[in-house]
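Per reviewer request, we include the raw input and output of the structure prediction for the construct analysed in the revised manuscript.
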Amino acid sequence: MRSTASALLLAIATTTAWGQEPARGELLYATHCATCHSERLHEREKSKIRSLADLRDEVARWAPQTRHRFTLDEREDVVQHLNRTHYKLRN
């Protein structure tokens, strides 16, 4: 388990492409967002999210509620994680 976490952290640390690290988005979400709500929140019927712009706005809106200062790249990774796993929106 420890070697898997170390490998994941190494992969995150070496990532330079904007919004291109699926594992980082998942890890950031699990670490900083899922503590207040489960991913089931994203599966509710009356979602406000209708576009990637909506999703980006919501992530930006709630990011300050965490104790982590998200960079733009990190927020985009969370957006991409949520889109890939729940919303499946197109650009």
